[in-house]
Amino acid sequence: MDLHQLQAFDQVIQQKSFSKAARRLGISQPTISLRIQALEQELGDTLFVRGGKQLQLTQLGRNFIPYALQALTAMTSGLQVAQDTIQGRKGQFMLATLPALTTSFFAATLARLRHAHPALDIAVHTGHTQQIVEMLHDGLVELGLVVGPFFSPAMVPILQLKEPLMVIAHASHPLAKKERVTLDDLQTASNPFFQIDWSLEARYWQRNVQSTRLANIEVPPHTAYELLMSGIGTALLTHSFAHHGIQAGNLVELPVDDLPALQRECVLIRHEREASLSLAANDFIRILREETLLL
Fold it and tell me: Which of 187, 196, 254 is nearest to 223 (CA)?
């Protein structure tokens, strides 16, 4: 039996007429009669009493009703889920990222993706670069976001994102009062200058800021942000990390003399076998590109 046969049976019961059921389904009366006959052939007996003034169900017809409705509901729901999945409205989208990349533009991208696909299940896994590559190899995630420059066999770069780095301090920090800040100021008055592993170039530049008198402190970006928000030290942060603090007036960008054009680069990657990405993945890429253009 198929969906059309079950729909015909359901409408004949509801309308109590073959002709009315046919009009409701937008088909001819002979077509709906043929569908009912085909269903009866599969069941092995008649569903309706023929020849009476009023349409009546046989014992088989009455007993078959709950099962027919249950099957019709399951098939209709299944078809809807299939269509939603094909069109990206339902299903599951899984991606992986480094913890340091789960910042404002990433969160904003997920929020917009959720708004566009409210029925879509979204799962974000975090790990270091090799773990993300392994998740892509195993097919556990569709996309991965890692720090660039990046190369790995079988991994295909989709989107390259570059974000400028700036020296940040709390608005109450002594260096925030200066019109210009020198490298010597950062060395002597940062108290302390937090080292963050953003990139090779940033690492080399930060070594020049290391104090000769005090121990160096290397921390993750999230930790540096929290310390700066509490009024302690200075650090090299991306705009996305410092955005909320700057917007609230708690953090400020220091005007550092001769600061090179340092950047944090990240790369969105997929496995080479995933030549055709899901609609949700393509929407994520589009939204991520739009969000990073605002940086």
Answer: 196
Model confidence pLDDT, tens digit, residues 81-94: 677 666 655 578 89
Beta bridge partners of 165: 238
In Å, how far are 4, 33, 275 from 25, measured between CA atoms? 10, 12, 41
Q: What are the backbone dihedrals phi and psi of residue 238, each rounded to the nearest 5 degrees, phi first?
A: -80, 165
Question: Residue 223: beta bridge partners?
Answer: none
Work out the angle at residue 272's Cα, subtended by the Cα atoms of residues 267 and 278, and round it to the nearest 5 degrees: 80
Q: Do residues 52 and 45 lie in contact, with contact meaning Cβ atoms separated by under 8 Å?
A: no
CA distance 229 to 246: 10
Q: What is the pLDDT of residues 236-270, one digit of tens each?
A: 999 888 888 999 999 999 999 989 999 888 899 99
Backbone angles phi and psi of 15, in degrees to 5? -85, -15
Name the strand (E) or helix (H) holding 172.
Answer: none
CB 187 within 8 A of CB 175: no
Bridge partners, residue 166, by sequence: 237
Structure tokens at 216: 């160096």
Residue 242: how many other CB atoms lie within 10 Å: 27
Q: Are 218 and 235 in contact (CB under 8 A)?
A: no
CA–CA separation, 144 vs 126, rounded Å?
A: 9
**SS3 category, 224:** helix
Task: In whole angstroms, give the CA distance from residue 191 to residue 221.
Answer: 17
**CA atoms of 282 and 257, how far apart (whole Å):** 41
Counts of helices then strands in the chain (DSSP H, E): 11, 11
Interatomic CA distance for residues 159 and 144, integer angstroms: 11
